[in-house]
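Researcher: Next sequence.
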Amino acid sequence: MSLLSVLSVSASGMSAPRRCAELRVETLATSETTRTPEGGPYRRKDVVFASASQTSPFGAVFQTEMDTGITGVEVSSVVEDTQEPDKRYMPGHPDADKDGYVAYPRVNPAEDMVDLIGAQRGFQGNVAAMTAIKDMIMRSIDLLK
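Model: Next structure:
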């Protein structure tokens, strides 16, 4: 396994939490949205991660000769929450139904903040791994001088 291949694994590990963080921020920003272009309140979205083989753009020439089987992570899909929205009694609201209830997104800010912190930690861990790999590469170059 080359150090450049490990860089591509860490890069995939940075991309996946970034997408997760984007969705958490979107959820928090639209937690009071009662009307979307699709109709109804905003629906929370979650990412589904999957294992994915990684190829290093730097080592693409060697990939045919050295099949290392290195896997990283990718976002395989984004799923939308299918639970019923929260109903709040607000008879004067423009989106109220005939009984005076308004459908609000089913959002738990505490859960979304924990998910956001988890995504941040995942990103930070991969940045630390990339920094260590970069330092190893620089050290190897210094030894060859």
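Model: The chain has two helices and four strands. Strands lie at 45-53, 71-80, 86-89, 101-104.
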